[in-house]
Amino acid sequence: MPEYSYWIIAGLALIIAEFAVSGLVVIFFGIAAILVGSLKFVGLLDDTTWELTLFALISVLLLVFVRRVLSDKLMGKEQRQGGNEDSAGLIGQRATVAEPFTDGSGIVNYRGARWQAQSPHPLKPGQMVRIVKHDGLWLTVEPWNSTSVS
């Protein structure tokens, strides 16, 4: 098998591996390997040192310059909002107490899901509560009343 075919086969394998890894990194190594294999096929490369050097150079250039552009277009730009914004949209929503609160913590139901919650107020099952804080898997709630409706 000719030497250039190893580069092209490795390049194709790396491009296919990108689907498994999914980080938009491995594909650039695959593209670089295919380019080096193509240059070797045409006869522009004959020395293994130059092949490896060109492979490394093309890979780094693609990673540095092309990855940024492609990742913005393919994956979108996620911008973190400042302040105490609730990304899940839970703050201000109404939930129902599922289990009595003991020592300031208990369980609430919100949209069919059970959440661990904390509250300085004593709460009983069936009582409506307002979500005032969302921190990971924990909600902070307070009793729902006419003054808590916004």
From TrEMBL:
It is a multi-pass membrane protein. Residues 89-143 form the NfeD-like C-terminal domain. It is found in: Membrane. Pfam families: NfeD. InterPro entries: Membrane_assoc_protease (IPR052165), NA-bd_OB-fold (IPR012340), NfeD-like_C (IPR002810). Gene3D superfamilies: Nucleic acid-binding proteins. One of its GO terms (cellular component) is plasma membrane. Keywords: Membrane, Transmembrane, Transmembrane helix. The chain crosses the membrane at residues 7-36, 48-70. This is NfeD family protein.
